[in-house]
Amino acid sequence: MHDFQYHKPSSVADAVAALGSGEDATLVAGGMTLIPTLKQRLAAPSDLVDLSGVADLVGVRDKGDHVEIGAMTTHAAVAASPDVPGCLAELAGNIGDAQVRNRGTIGGSVANNDPTACYPSACLALNATIVTNSREIAADDYFTGMFETALEEGEIITAIRFPKPEAGKYMKFENPASRYALVGVFVAKTGGQVRVAVTGAGQDGVFRATDIESALSSNFSPDAVDSSTIDVDGLNGDIHASAEYRQHLIGVMAKRAVAACA
Amino acid sequence: MSETGIGASVKRKEDKRFLTGQGNYLHDIERPNQSYAYILRSPMAHAKINGIDTAAAAAAPGVLAVFTGADTAELGGIPCGWGVNNKDGSPMAEPKHPMLAEGKVRHVGDQVAVVIAETYEQAKDAAELIDVDYEELPAVVDMVKAISGDGPLVHDEAADNLCYDWELGDEAEVNQAFDGAAHVVSIDVTNNRLVPNAMEPRAAIGEYDKATGEYTLYTTSQNPHVIRLLMGAFVLGLPEHKLRVVAPDVGGGFGSKIYHYAEEAIVTWAAPKVGRPIKWVAERTESFMSDAHGRDHITHADLALDAEGKFLGLKVYTKANMGAYLSTFSTCVPTYLHSTLLAGVYTTPKIYSEVKAIFTNTVPVDAYRGAGRPEATYLLERLVSKAAWELGIDQVEIRRKNFIPKDAFPYQTPVALQYDSGDYDATLDKALELADYAGFPARKAEAAQRGKLRGIGFSTYVEACGIAPSAVVGSLGARAGLFESANVRVHPTGSVSIFTGSHSHGQGHETTFAQLVSETLGIPLDNIDIVHGDTNKVAFGMGTYGSRSLAVGGEAIMKALGKVTDKAKKIAAHIMEASEADIEFKDGKFTVAGTDKEMAFGEIALAAYVPHNFPHDQLEPGLEEQAFYDPMNFTYPGGCHICEVEVDPDTGVVEVVGMTAVDDVGRVINPMIVEGQIHGGLAQGIGQALLEACVYDEDGQLVTGSYMDYCMPRADDLPDFKAATTETLCAHNSLGVKGCGEVGAIGSPPSVINAVLDALRDRGVSDIAMPATPQAVWKALKAAETPMAAE
Amino acid sequence: MPSVTMTVNGKQVSGDVEGRTLLSTFIRENLDLTGTHIGCDTSQCGACVVHVDGRSIKSCTLLAVQAEGADVVTIEGLADGEELHPMQEAFRDCHGLQCGFCTPGMVMSAVDLLNVNPDPSDHEIREWLEGNICRCTGYHNIVKAVKQAAQTMRGQAAAAE
To answer: How much is the pTM?
Structure first.
């Protein structure tokens, strides 16, 4: 990788300052995506601002009707937390491999918005709020395309708030090689409202499967999924799965998620 | 049986260093004042090089030298070790494989320039400054298109991209056998291209000693002497006695580390030029685009049967991808390692095989675990299962009906080989029992209740290994002999060093070979060292591949041990004042028949080096012997693999729920190690059948260039294995051993695919290609449920 | 050039590194602890797994500067003098290694598994080892070794109580 200036601030304010100091500074959270990217020389930032020294970004806080997860909380910590809704803990416990879960963070995943990452589907399906150093962003407004988010320059995610669902389940069909989500479907019922989010499949990244949502809203059963349609346009195709196969898998995973919610 | 001798599951001597981080792999070696090389590789599959500007790179921080093909053009190309002739007797096309590209690049990853710098990162930084003026040319990846007559030419001197067009057998005679057939069953199969992926990436250090004029190459090799010969004599023109090649602990090979690679020649050649040792270590991404790939055959085959299902004749037409250049053993894989295996375990009387070897703009293809024999076994066992299904004969029955019976050995096949021993019913019987074949219908019914499609698949196979008799391979085009050497050095205190030309890179030679010595000399394992992997220590060696280490290297050790005990008996006879004929040697003790006189092995060893009263005209001091062993024949391990799968029809996911392998590998020296070798082969076989595919797009870009897209078998992809052995002894070596390194990878792939097809048959699926990925299975199911539409 | 200080195998070490120096490079080149191996460049093979502050991580995916002040254990620090760790012993007993290249990372990962789950099922072991690729063994004997080590370590823990 190319060399860079390394910074390890101990507060969000210092991190923002460090970000502004370099001509092309970038944040590193767990580094599970960024460091491999740097090793491949696919990015060459001038400065690397490491958030791991900012202590108050770590931790899970039960807030009654919702849970707030600090941006620098690792997947392993989320998976092990008794305060996190089971469906979300289970999702965290199946991200990547054990070593990725020991380092990778929820904030890093959500900021990166990798189209094959798991967390973005949880944010959308659970109607999460992305909390930054300057504002709160509804998940529906946050994910704006593949590797694209509503985050502005110098904006840092500090926490994610997840409402607690009555029922929820994430079903992932893994890419056999990379083990990222080839198709991941998160079905959640929160405050009577059903939301279904799909990751891994969309050309524009994570998206809500609104047709499945409406079918499930009137009849929350696996069979209801059959009566809904998933548009093949806009789905990814690659050597591991054509758009048609992904379309099919969305239906299968959605049904299995609903069945598991029951 | 002794606790450390033949047949004992001795724990491995090498394990402690590997388990405590003390292994000495090439990456771990630091030479004084070492510099680092980075190889700039072609990003294009096919392009003319109009110019290379290295000025900026040469001026970059830390850079010691930059070299391109212009600097190495006068040197030899990377040689091919096996010549194959065309049907008309003319030699194959053999274009030069330059160390660094000369005017043209022919595959993504082709080496274009080398930067040598103080640090690796500096060399890599500088390589970004090299400006290569490429003129992109159309690339050809598909073999059918390559030989169609209008594809781009990879080499101007190979018309229609044809390396050779070769045949074995008389096609007209085999056609006659087909004339009288009641049934003809045909099949088209692709043997998918694989990337070997030994976990240790290749690496090399080149070094030159100005004082002595000696070169040293440290390299990740399965056969350091072969590298010395190929690189010294054919590429760099270095005197063999001034070239040392060291292969230290090597992290897996599976064939990919047999061959001589350009990087080895580059660092050795450049070392005196920069006056420093030069280290090169491949990144995994480089491994994908520069290690020789495996398999990549397209085959059509026809099997003629009589009304009862007896095989009458077989015709096999194969296209074999050579990639862009001929790697060391590439040309013999589809011919002598493939076509000669087409009888399998069956009495098929007439066989014809044609092989067209084809150049494409892809990484060179060469032997990978099994090499040619997995391809033969796959097409044959797919064809036999297909015949059984088409003719309504039971899968077991059709095989038994055509087996070479156990009393027919030695058995001459119609495809050149003479099998020495085997009992195919015995391996089948044991496998059926272990796999609980009788219980399969109940398991299938139970799976159906869970919505799963369950299938069972068979493969009964034989392989030719223990490669091999020099006389035979020489007559088949090998440009080298395939013997092995061993040296047994008994030290004065009775401990023993064995110098072997075999090379261990996971196989556990340090243990298995030591067991041979312990058994023969009656001394403890701790007193035995196995030395390998250094041309300055070992007299000569052809190396480790083709399951040959024990059957050839082990036999060489036995032969040298025999010479040692003969000499020791002479010494014992002299000291104990007895006739040599009366000396017996057993359990480490020399005794004189009919007396109570005895001497321990260690006492004789000491006496050999303290020859105060030796009759020097009859008895030399010292106790050290050398042997070369060249076998009479290949060895023929074989067996039966039974795979059981469950398919999820909703997603297409195939789960291997049972994998039984019963193999006859001859006498087993260390059952624990043999079982481990079989497990590893099975994992690679299942990987080929279900997970692994090397994919190029039509422009020649490598789509599966990392573990993100190339699917390596992981722990959760595989089941527990049931592995067992039966034993018929090899008839032509003293140990009766046959070899076990490749059986798992050779036998298993067709059993997996036959199981998948068995599971899908009820849904109308009759064919599926490897790897049977979830998507492939889903598509096959979908195509079968859609009635043949207008499209 | 930044300098880093950390504890490796119980000893405090420091060194000058570039910002881009990986922890694996620091361990191998600065400390000459070459048991930590590099088998890929996409953070998947797991040959480089070490423990950082008690948890397994891939040292090729962490900068040396990120490990400032950390407690690092590598394969060289696992055995107690000449006495192998039960996981190392079990790998040897069960023939859980062949070429040995993936072994250090495999062992370090497996030790972490038993830290969080002292009695894993076969399935849990196979899932946990997803991030460690072995090309030699087919994993069968690795799974067996992890189970054996788990049993030994549970026995030791019970005896200590």
So the answer is: 0.97
